[in-house]
Specification:
Layout lengths: L71 H29 L4 H17 L12 H19 L5 H13 L3 E2 L5 E2 L1 H5 L5 E2 L1 E7 L3 E4 L6 E3 L6 E8 L3 E9 L6 E6 L1 H14 L9 E7 L3 E10 L4 E2 L5 E6 L2 E4 L5 E3 L6 E7 L3 E9 L2 E11 L13 H4 L13 E7 L7 E11 L5 E3 L17 E7 L2 E5 L8 E2 L6 E2 L2 E5 L9 E9 L14 E7 L7 E2 L3 E9 L6 E2 L4 E5 L5 E10 L6 E11 L4 E9 L5 E8 L3 E6 L5 E11 L6 E2 L4 E6 L4 E4 L6 E3 L6 E7 L4 E9 L2 E9 L3 E5 L7 E11 L5 E3 L3 E6 L5 E4 L7 E5 L4 E8 L4 E7 L4 E7 L3 E6 L3 E9 L6 E2 L5 E7 L3 E3 L6 E4 L2 E8 L5 E7 L4 E10 L6 E11 L3 E5 L6 E11 L13 E8 L3 E4 L5 E5 L9 E6 L4 E9 L6 E8 L3 E4 ...
Parallel strand pairs: 3-85, 4-86, 6-13, 15-22, 23-31, 24-32, 42-49, 50-57, 51-58, 61-67, 69-76, 78-84
Antiparallel strand pairs: 1-2, 4-91, 5-7, 7-10, 8-9, 8-11, 11-12, 11-13, 14-16, 16-19, 17-18, 17-20, 20-21, 20-22, 23-26, 25-29, 27-28, 27-30, 30-32, 33-34, 34-37, 35-36, 35-38, 38-39, 38-40, 41-43, 43-46, 44-45, 44-47, 47-48, 47-49, 50-52, 52-55, 53-54, 53-56, 56-58, 59-62, 60-61, 62-65, 63-64, ...
Helix pairs in contact: 2-3
Length: 1275
């Protein structure tokens, strides 16, 4: 390749040259392609003689990557970029080692290998200018290997410091506990931790200071003036100038205290300080009445020299006040309280209030830092002394501001709620306590508006009861009806107060066909005074309640809400009548009246019947259930009858009068007489009388003639009768035989005589009947089979049929029977002694033979079957309950029989599944017993409920009788064997060698009744004997199996079920080789703190060594905030950016899912801070020999040890220099140090119990040694 330079003797290529053709034109040499270097312009070279070429010569080799694919210059660029990338990768590995403070042989070997591949591989590419010799490659590799060793083993040479500085400059951030990158510089070099400077100037004369004790003052309606304290030190003032800055206008006012007034103030002050040291300062009190910011402007002494006052100010503001804004006196339950507190004063304000419900306090509540929106008070950051120094500042921050604090809480309880303000405090420290006693010196405020109370009422409810569209109210026209509303409330009882009811009304004529309201429905309102009243309604139509409310609260309308009221038509009556005529005599005997009704059935009509001048009789027709009916008016006696229909009523309307409904008739029945009872002849006993009832008709009085005939003898009788009914009573019939009583004639009042033909006969008996028992086998007693009819021989005299009454003396049962034969049998079916009581034949009562009036009947005993009760056999609900057994267990029970053996028993065995209740199988089995007992084997092969029903029982005397033998049922429940199975058989579960939260459990399902007893067999890999794990009292059918960690071995194990028992005591042992699961136990990762201490400071690094397989997942909490972080290395390091408690709770590596529970707690403490003079630059002037205090405020954990310096006060052209350095210890959060020397005081370092900080330096951790707060410093 003529266009590519080759390596020369020195090992480096020559500059590429351009070959020209003999013709002088620039051209490519033999073998040159498009990648040859072009010739430079303006460069001329003499032509070279062309070397003769032989046909066998081969062209020289070029770059490994042909130039037409990638230009050599580009190849060099890419190779250099790859070299830079290798160094970036190398720097990253070195940075990780430096952060973790670790070394790595693996990384060193890795980079030596990579450098060797790169350095010795570059010449192979044959890129121009990069074809160095092997010796050069070896020297380069040796240099890189040395650099690799120095970097990966962190050999302390300046290169490491330079590299770290460079990397720190480029990547100045670390991962903090909050898992975000932060720069450690601002944390370690926080200049705000030490703030404040105080300059002390020594005055040539005395001094004065306003409000030396920094008290707070305020004015209100009760405190109209107050005294401002002015401390005078080593001087006798003759004039004092006070500057008042008006808070509202920010205008200045100078108040001059003249000599005369000042003398009085000094006299009063000296009198108050009588007995004190004369050299001590005295305090005068100047009374002011205006609000404002007061400053001590000028003090003149007796020599007319000005005493420099110390910089101080006092704010006299309006006292803070608060009130509960007026609100309505009534609320409803579940409303919001809607109360607001109005606080007025200098913000930020604090208020304390309390809530009382039904005279029971619910505790006090407080609000802090109250200030108007978009307003930030400077008092939240500075004191009032620091805000006002010269009198030219803006003091608008001292204006009183109003802040409204809304209080909204749900009123869940009815009753009296009261809000009351207890205390209010402003930003200056002025406190107004509304509950203090009279001897309290703090400002008091009038109690107007500090308390507001209201009554919380229950909400009403109502609904319609007993009326709807299907069951309307039916009301008479013009009548009113109560709207059937039922009242209740959100409380336990209805509200006994007026209710305002609103309802819609649609007349019945305007109602749509769907039964709803019309668009023109009328809205009505009504107020009900008590919850026992209801609205009155009368018009027909649809009524729907729409709302209900009381005086204070709206309520809810519950379903049903509607009621339909109807007005049926009023009842009316129309009558028509026709005569009823006697066909024989032609006289009217009554009326038939037709009734036509209008209204709602049933109807009821009342009318009066008046006969001639007799008193009218009121008659009720009774209920008539239809709209048409008829009645017959047939009086039994003659006369003129008037019928007046008076009233009518139906189901809806009450009695209403009827008008002009009158009927009249004349009744004249014909005279007659007849027996009331006719038919067969009567029979009578000897010496008895006979009676016959006769009814007479016509107009009385009557004369009745009758005849009594016996044995051809006739005897006539005549009797006058006044009444319609008459009883003919014969004389005593002393002769037996037939007697005839015939009606001969009857004559009425008018003398009309009617001959009669009716007659009645009576047959008189000659003797009385008799009854007595016969004998069976010579005695009047018998033993028979129960249920069989027993015939007792009975003998009777007289004429049949006979009526016999007898009694079972054992049961006191009286029986009657009718017998037709003289020698008959009395059939009985019950045992006992039977006594004949009465006998009566067809005519006469008889007598009982006292010697044969009783007969005894006894039963041969029937067979009985019973089951003896015991602890395992209980009678419940008419059946015997045998103690339940488990499936497959042997069991039996015995039955006892009494009677005449042998016994034959038939019983059925019914089986049904316990859950379904349907009979699954029924089998009938016979049983023959030669003795009085038998044993029944219970069936337990299948779980379920078995009923053994003994349906038939017979012995040698009695066949089975279903009437006398009640089936005996023995019921026994056979519990199924419990079951246990793995939900996911064959699955492999992972466990850790140490117990952790959230470990994987093995879900199982049980069949049976909990609690369960479970035995698990654990077969460890390589161990011949399995291990048993027992789990007791498993409360449910779903169970998450957890294996005790002491029974787990590293590696694989097989879990199978060995035995399961449920609460019934039933046990199941599964056969070997059943379903099983596998468990795999892994070793858990570990974490070890690299430092044994538990207390750290902000800016420290928390480092932990992790053991396990990278990468790791670290779980930790910081200030109760749970976090997790991924860590690719074996060292977990985080920067402590803020104070708090850091706890590593768990660790998981990539080898398994084991989460190792940890509890490594580190306490991170804040770096202490100190404020001198409130963090401001303060200047204090003192007299020679006087003194002042340096006020230090600390934050952190006591004790505090701090160092401060006194420097000379800088002047014009002079630099300040440190005069002395002092170290103090404070066990409190504030310290006052008295100084008398002039100079500039400032703090240069501070440390508390844990940490420290120095001005211009960085924070350090304070190692606590012997003694509290003492020890060494660790940077």
């Amino acid at each position: 390749m003529n266009g590519t330079p080759r390596r020369g003797p020195g090992g480096f290529p020559a500059t590429p040259q351009t070959h020209r053709s003999p013709a002088g034109g620039a051209g490519a040499g033999t073998g040159a392609g498009t990648g040859s270097t072009p010739s430079r312009p303006n460069v001329r070279a003499p032509p070279l003689a062309e070397v003769p070429r032989t046909p066998a010569a081969q062209p020289s080799a070029g770059p490994l990557i042909p130039s037409h694919i990638l230009d050599p210059a580009q190849q060099r660029f890419y190779l250099f970029a790859f070299y830079v990338a290798l160094w970036a990768w190398r720097s990253y590995d070195f940075y990780n080692l430096a952060i973790e403070e670790d070394q790595s042989l693996v990384l060193c070997l890795k980079w030596c290998f990579l450098d060797m591949c790169f350095i010795f591989g570059v010449p192979v590419l044959e890129i121009p200018w990069l074809e160095y010799s092997n010796a050069t490659a070896f020297l380069l590799f040796l240099l890189h290997a040395v650099m690799d060793v120095m970097l990966m083993f962190r050999i302390g040479v300046p290169v490491q410091a330079w590299a770290l500085s460079l990397l720190g400059f480029l990547w100045d951030s670390e991962l903090a506990i909050s898992e975000r990158s932060v720069k450690p510089g601002p944390i370690l070099h926080n200049a705000s931790l030490i703030l404040g400077k105080q300059i002390v100037n020594i005055l040539p004369e005395g001094s004065a200071i306003l409000n030396p004790d920094k008290l707070s003052f305020c004015l209100n309606s009760s405190v109209t003036s107050l005294e401002l304290p002015i401390q005078i030190n080593q001087t006798e003032p003759v004039e004092i100038d006070l500057l008042r800055i008006d808070i509202d206008t920010n205008q200045n006012e100078t108040i001059k205290v003249k000599s005369r007034e000042l003398k009085g103030l000094l006299k009063t002050a000296r009198k108050a300080a009588k007995g004190a040291d004369p050299a001590e300062p005295i305090t005068v009190h100047y009374r002011v009445k205006k609000r404002g910011v007061y400053l001590l402007r000028k003090v003149l002494d007796q020599s007319q020299l000005e005493v420099r006052p110390r910089s101080s100010s006092v704010v006299v503001a309006s006292c803070p006040q608060a009130r509960v804004k007026p609100t309505g006196g009534h609320r409803c339950r579940n409303d919001l309280s809607d109360v607001a507190l109005e606080v007025e004063g200098i913000p930020p304000l604090n208020i304390k209030y309390r809530l009382t419900v039904n005279d029971k306090a619910r505790g006090g509540s407080e609000f802090h830092n109250l200030q108007p929106d978009e307003f930030t008070s400077p008092l939240s950051r500075h004191t009032s002394q620091a805000l006002v120094k010269s009198g030219h500042e803006d003091v608008s921050w001292a204006k009183s501001q109003k802040v409204t604090v809304p209080l909204n809480e749900t009123l869940l309880t009815s009753g009296r709620w009261a809000y009351e303000v207890e205390e209010v405090r402003d930003a200056l420290g002025n406190v107004v306590n509304y509950l203090v006693s009279d001897d309290d010196e703090r400002p008091k405020a009038r109690s107007t508006g500090i308390q507001q109370s209201f009554q919380v009422h229950e909400r009403p409810k109502t609904y319609v009861s007993g009326c709807d569209l299907e069951k309307p109210l039916r009301v008479a026209k013009g009548n009113v009806q109560r709207f059937p509303l039922v009242y209740s409330s959100t409380g336990k009882e209805a509200i006994d107060a007026p209710h305002h009811i609103e309802y819609m009304f649609t007349p019945e004529a305007d109602m749509p066909v769907d039964g709803s309201h019309s668009p023109n429905a009328e809205i009505k309102q009504q107020t009900i005074r008590t919850n026992r009243e209801q609205p009155l309604i009368s018009a027909s139509g649809l009524y729907t309640v729409t709302s209900v409310k009381t005086e204070f609260c709206a309520g809810d309308v519950l379903e049903p809400t509607s009621c339909l009221l109807q007005n049926p038509p009023e009842p009316e009556l129309t009558i028509e009548s026709t005569d009823i005529v006697d066909k024989c005599a032609g006289n009217p005997i009554g009326l038939r009246v037709s009734l036509d009704f209008v209204g709602t059935p049933p109807f009821e009509v009342t009318y009066t019947e008046k006969q001639d001048a007799r008193r009218a009789k009121k008659i009720n027709s009774g209920k008539i259930s239809s709209v048409r009916s008829t009645i017959d008016l047939t009086p039994p006696t003659a006369g003129h009858y008037t019928y007046v229909f008076d009233t009518i009523k139906d189901e809806v309307y009450g009695e209403r009068p009827l008008e002009n409904l009158v009927l009249q008739q004349n009744v004249k029945p014909s005279v007659s007489a007849h027996y009331i009872e006719t038919g067969r002849p009567k029979e009578a006993c000897i010496d008895d009388t006979a009676e016959f009832d006769v009814r007479l008709q016509g107009e009385g009085p009557w004369n009745l003639e009758y005849e009594v005939t016996h044995n051809g003898k006739r005897k006539k009788h005549s009797v006058d009768i006044e009444e319609e009914h008459y009883t003919i009573k014969t004389e005593a019939l002393t002769q037996g035989g037939e007697h005839t009583v015939s009606l001969a004639s009857v004559t009425d009042k008018m003398g009309c005589k009617e001959y009669l033909k009716e007659s009645a006969k009576v047959i008189v008996r000659h003797d009385r009947p008799k009854a007595y028992f016969g004998q069976i086998e010579g005695k009047q007693a018998v033993m028979a089979l129960e249920g069989k009819n027993v015939e007792l021989p009975l003998h009777l005299t007289g004429s049949g049929r006979w009526f016999v009454e007898y009694e079972n003396l054992d049961t006191n049962e009286v029986l009657k029977t009718e017998i037709s034969s003289r020698n008959s049998f009395l059939k009985v079916k019950s045992e006992g002694t039977y006594q004949l009581i009465k006998v009566h034949d067809a005519v006469c009562p008889g007598v009982i033979d006292p010697k044969a009036g009783q007969f005894s009947v006894g039963w041969v005993p029937r067979p009985k079957l019973s089951v003896d009760e015991s602890a395992t056999m209980v009678l419940e609900g008419g059946k015997y309950i045998k103690e339940a057994v488990c499936e497959g267990e042997e069991d039996a029970f015995e039955v006892t029989m009494s009677g005449n053996p042998p016994f034959e028993v038939a019983y059925g065995q019914e089986y049904r599944e316990k859950n379904h209740g349907k009979k699954s199988s029924v089998s009938n089995k016979p049983l023959r017993a030669l003795a009085g007992s038998a044993s029944i084997r219970a069936e337990t092969s299948q779980s379920g409920v078995y009923d053994y029903i003994f349906r038939e029982l017979a012995d040698s005397k009695y066949d089975h009788s279903s009437k006398h033998f009640s089936p005996v049922t023995v019921q026994q429940t056979v519990y199924p064997r419990p079951g246990a199975r793995f939900d996911k058989p064959g699955k492999t579960y992972s466990y850790c060698s140490r117990e952790t939260d959230g470990e994987e459990v093995i879900p199982m399902t049980f069949d049976g009744v909990p609690p369960f007893y479970l035995e698990i067999e654990i077969k460890h890999h390589g161990t011949p004997k399995p291990e048993i794990s027992v789990h007791k009292n498993i409360p449910s059918n779903k169970y998450d199996l957890k294996i005790e960690h002491r029974k787990l071995h590293l590696g694989h194990s097989a879990i199978s079920i060995r035995k399961i028992r449920d609460a019934r005591g039933c046990t199941l042992k599964p056969p070997p080789g059943g379903p099983r699961v596998q468990i795999s136990v892994h070793d858990a990762p570990t974490a070890t703190p690299l430092e044994d201490r538990t207390d750290f400071c902000v800016g420290d690094r928390l480092s932990f060594a992790l053991g396990g397989q990278v990468p790791f997942t670290v779980y930790y909490t910081f200030e109760k905030d749970e976090r997790k972080a991924s860590n690719a290395g074996t060292t977990f390091r985080r920067l402590a950016e803020r104070p708090g408690t850091f706890t590593i709770t768990g660790l998981r590596d990539s080898a398994s899912e084991c989460l190792a529970p940890l509890n490594m707690t580190k306490h991170i403490h804040a770096i202490p801070s100190v404020r001198l003079s409130g963090g401001q630059l303060a200047s204090v002037d003192i007299h020679e020999g006087g003194g002042t205090d340096l006020e230090f405020q600390f934050t952190g954990d006591p004790p505090f040890e701090f160092t401060y310096t006194r420097s000379s006060n800088a002047g014009k052209g002079r630099k300040s220099r440190v005069l002395e350095m002092r170290t103090e210890v404070s066990h409190e959060l504030a310290l006052s140090v008295a100084v008398q020397e002039e100079g500039t005081y400032e703090v240069v370092s501070i440390k508390d119990r844990w940490c420290g900080f120095a001005r211009g330096g960085r924070a350090w951790r304070w190692r606590v040694g012997v003694g509290r707060g003492r020890g060494g410093r660790s940077c």
